[in-house]
Structure of Hexosyltransferase:
Amino acid sequence: RIQGENIGIPGPMLFHLHYLKPYRRHRRVVTRTLLLLAAFILLIYLSLSGVFERLRETPYSDYSYPPEIDLKYLLRSLKTGSEPFYSVQNHYERYVFKISNELKCHISQNRTSILIVVKSAAAHQSLRDTIRQTWGQENRFEDVDLRRVFMVGVKANDETAQSALEDEHAHHGDLVQADFIDTYYNNTIKMMLSFRWVLEHCSDVQWIFFADDDYYVSTKNLLQFLRHSMNPRDRHLVGYVYDEAAPYRAYFNKWYVSLSEYPFSRYPPFPVGGSIVMSMPALTELYHMARYTRQFRLDDVFLGIVARKVGLRPLHSDKFRDKNQPKLPEDFVGIVAAHGVYDRYHLVQIWEQQKRLGHA
């Protein structure tokens, strides 16, 4: 007789229960392990997606970006030639202009003078050629003295690329090249070296317009906007402005920013770096303050940080487009600049359409 028959449990069932207990224990262990694994994966996901960093951010109401600088004292010291007691954070003066283009700007008196600085990359000659033939033409307007340069860096260990740039400049005379490695996260250096070059070689211009080489620009609309809106003797910084943009905390995002790099819950207002126009007084103060401000690798955010330090609030205009890019020909009416040109043929198509309509 099998033990247990006296309590009414059939022998085969008792045999089954005998082996079922370890199975149940095993299933509980597996379930707990899977739950722990799921919790671990969730924690990793939340960490990489920036949730925990977001919870540890410093409120923007406590914003203070180092170091604190007295702008009036700084400008007064620089004007008199004395050395400010602040430490220089960014030695932009140590970079060398391999192509300096010192004689590019000879601005006549009593004419609206605009300098267009197109931020480009060494390999983008086809885009530069297209801009020269379309919206970047220098001699379209009889009553405006307009100059155009392309700002580039160097391509590391590539003598062929360097030789091509020098040949291109010899042919067109419109390149400025500094000896920084031209990568995405060096865009802040590219922007500030553009500022430095303007101050050293084009300080008589009234307006400076910065654009990336993947933008469509209506120079005609730009001129109308400047003539009817602002005085070049005042400080102006204009573009598509983000007022309350928050840092990206997701680790694998292109624009990820750690708490150690920037601890605050949002950025100061900043204009998108792809198309900005500013007056010379604004550029002068921004450049000098930038040298004494801890550098930030996102160029447009850094410009917003420096603008806040000098007490200059960027002015938003829907004539400068970052999102909601125009698509139909009539959408470009009144537009100064629009992002989203994906190749030279697209740029030519937009330009020819707008020129026929009288808006280019």
Summary: Residues 1-7 have pLDDT under 50 and may be disordered. Residues 26-55 form one domain.
